[in-house]
Write a structure and sequence with these properties.
Elements (H helix, E strand, L loop, with lengths): L22 E3 L2 H12 L3 E5 L4 H9 L3 E7 L5 E2 L8 E6 L7 H11 L2 E4 L13 E5 L10 E4 L18 H8 L6 H10 L10 H7 L4 H19 L16 E4 L3 H10 L10 H5 L5 H8 E4 L7 H15 L1
Helix pairs in contact: 1-2, 8-11
Length: 317
């Protein structure tokens, strides 16, 4: 029986998600697994420049894969002919791959999957399977969207997220450092999480976010950083719509991150597994070690960007 009375739960918030009529799942890696099952994919070509959570998932599910390199422009270096059950997995790093380039890869290879986990606001191109991650852009513990023209004929359970909220609620009222272990624990919990539908809690939060305000904040912050760093940044950076972060390249990136962390400015090393799995003279190694993904998201304004630049300058010198 349905319970009546007692204490209140979280209210049903405004139901206006940014994406509607997409497949709503619990994680980005499971969005890929959904595609593998729905399209009966036998083999996937992955970039070396990628988190091992994807290859781990493919290994667990006995899906064949092979790696390829990227160029300095973040684009795949790939010249193989794909079979009907083989797909090229393209990561849209920092939202730097524009639609016209994506269409060229579609025209050339047909079977492509676009990973837009770092480009949430870049709308999908019809006919291209596209994966989005929610927790990389918003204060939710999980959640992913999949834009695809196929439906997997499998009944999926709905995930539950209440036990994953501690680090998010804790940081809202306290310091990130106090809840970092909870954040890591949450990340670890995704390793063997089965495919499930997006949780009711995550979907409720996503429906109430002011997306236009977030896009405006992210755009403004990135433009401020780019205006002051573009002359020293060896990366040729485009300005994506609602950016993930500002990628700034420095030669001693790992040391700079350590110095910034001592000043309570936390710059992640995205995909540290790449440092172990690739040669030190590879572009993938250089990029993981030396690209600083500078925060420019909706939590911050121009004054924060000024502080970030000031501290960055002192740590680089």
């Amino acid at each position: 029986m349905r319970e009546i009375g007692g204490y209140f739960q979280l209210d049903q918030l405004i139901d206006k998600p940014y994406y509607e009529n997409f497949v709503e799942l619990n994680t980005g890696r499971n969005a890929l697994l959904y595609l593998v099952n729905a399209k009966k994919i036998r083999k996937i070509y992955l970039p070396y420049f990628l988190c091992n959570s994807v290859s781990d998932m493919l290994n667990r599910n006995k899906i064949d894969y092979e790696y390829y390199h990227i160029g300095r422009d973040f684009l795949p270096i790939f010249d193989k002919e794909l079979r009907n059950d083989e797909f090229l997995y393209i990561v849209n790093y920092y939202g730097q791959i524009i639609d016209s380039v994506i269409r060229k890869f579609k025209d050339k290879y047909n079977n492509i999957i676009l990973d837009n986990t770092q480009s949430f606001f870049q709308k999908p191109i019809p006919g291209i399977d596209t994966i989005y991650s929610c927790r990389k852009f918003f204060g939710v513990p999980d959640g992913a969207y999949l834009s695809t023209d196929v439906i997997w004929d499998e009944r999926l359970e709905k995930d539950e997220s209440s036990s994953r909220m501690k680090h998010i609620l804790g940081r809202y009222e306290g310091q990130a450092s106090d809840f970092y272990n909870e954040f890591k624990k949450n990340d670890e919990s995704f390793k063997e999480l089965p495919i499930k539908k997006m949780s009711k809690l995550t979907r409720n939060i996503l429906g109430a976010i002011d997306y236009e305000k977030i896009i405006e904040s992210r755009n403004r912050n990135l433009e401020y950083l780019h205006g002051r760093l573009k002359h020293t940044n060896i990366l040729d950076i485009k300005s994506p719509y609602g950016p993930f972060a500002y990628p700034y390249y420095v030669e001693n990136g790992i040391e700079v991150k350590k110095k910034l962390a001592q000043r309570k400015i936390y710059i992640p090393t995205l995909w540290p597994n790449v440092l172990k799995e690739n040669r030190e003279d590879s572009i993938e190694y250089y990029y993981v070690a030396n690209i600083l993904p500078l925060s420019c998201d909706q939590r911050y304004g121009t004054e924060d960007m000024k502080i970030l630049l000031k501290e960055l300058e002192q740590c680089i010198d």
